[in-house]
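Dear support,

We are seeing what looks like truncated structure output for some complexes. This example has two components. We would appreciate it if you could run it in full and send us the complete token output so we can diff it against ours.
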Amino acid sequence: MSQQAVKNYQAREDDDADLVRRCQKGDIDAFEVLVERHQKKMINIAYRMLGDYGDACDVVQESFLSAYRAVGKFRGEARFSTWLYGIVVNHTRNRLKQRAARSRHEVSSIDDPMESEDGSLLTEAHAQEESVIEQLDKKKLEKKVQVCISALDGEQREVLVLRDIQGFSYEEIGDILNLPKGTVKSRLFRARNALKHSLKRVLGDLR
Amino acid sequence: MTCREIENTLPGYLDDALSGEERRHVEEHLAACPQCRAVHADLKRAVGLVQDIAEVEPPPWLKQKIMAQVREEADRKKGIIQKLFFPLHIKIPLEAFATVLVAVLAFYVYKASWPEVSRIEPHSAPVYATGKDQVPAKSRQTPASAPPQTLAPRPPASEAAEKDKGLAPVSQQTREDETGHAEKRIGGEGKLAEREPSPPLIKAEERETRPPKDKEVSDTVSLGRLQAYSHPQQAPLLEEKSKASADAVAQESRKREAAPVAAQALTAAGPRPIDVTMYVRDTSAAVKAVEDILHEFNARIIERQVHEGRAVLTAEIKGLYVKAFFEKLKGIGETRGIRALPDVSQGSVIVRTEIVRNN
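Here is the complete output from our reference environment:
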């Protein structure tokens, strides 16, 4: 992070603190500013963990409403953003649990052959001579990556999304997930290796 | 380090999150092991793919939807506060309750303080106000002739004379009653309709007991007052103001006495206040002394009329205390009019104490 970026970040946190104080006094406009400021990060966290945009929107709404209800109890011990992202992670977990409960019998394993959009089996891809990556446009590739992320174990997925997609530091992830730094690291390393295996299986050659 | 250990360490190597020694081991191994180099390259690529994944944008409606929910929530919160303090459907029962409470409180306060009110009332009573100026004056200049001006609407002289005539026999009967049927007399005190004969009776008694010079005046005064007393509907006999106060007193005494007295009233011929006249040097001191005694006996002062040199205190006193009361009166000044006292052990009687300056 450059010095300017650090300064901006700190300024934003200070702004957050001020806005939070206003929210606690009942200023709804201040809360709107916080929604504006954090909704993108929130929806990206939720979307990458859930793999479904509509569900992610629902979860973000629920999370902001929970945050509004609980903002009076926020004492500023952690950063507001960290507190907010913790809420969205929790709501995402709940949504995943609901989903799992709803379609337990339909759950597919990472080892099951996955179908691409055109109906061809992705497991056949690596048999082809040319790199699949080059053949797929970016969007399609992202979909495959998302499938692999979604296939990760829940705990590993959280850490991977927060670290490799959202770019949080180990400390921040520890704060958001309420985990020690060592646990964050070990989960992240396992998540990366699992993702690599998964991607290799889905995409074939990664090089 | 084995290849497996290296593979587990590589994710940290990517983040530059290894210790210096670990890092050195990994670099040495990678340099020597093409298989692990391939694994490392795959990992780098995989993580790169994830890191490159495009961010999604929130839908434009998301913020609006969130804020709509938040505002609804805020309104609901506000609603709870409003429900507690302002809303109509709570306020009305609250107001009604408060009104009832105030009314009940007012009633109790009124009830509790009534004895004081009744004692004070004659002070401000118009009877007193009108009588004050004229009665004593009359009593000085016209001892036995015309009735005072204040009582102008009094029945014509002939009528009064008729009444006077007719009273003599009744007064005899009174004496009989006094000795033989005391309870009867007490019984009727609250029954206002039956009070009619009482003023003449008093007159008859007064005639006997009072010195001639005061007789006529006191007769007319007491008659007038007692008429007002027992016949609020005949109030035009008195001035407007006295009517009002007399009404109030009459109504109040009716209210208070009607119930317990009703049964006795059936047998009673009518209420007959016991009259006593006192001659003292200082009327105002005597009035005070008499009042004190009345309070001592828990008597309720119904009427209090004080003039220069003359005062009348009408009080309701427990029959039990009547004798003792008269005994006490004797301690204040020369008393007249106390004859054979009725033996009253129950109920109460009305005692009219006239205090006259002894010149």
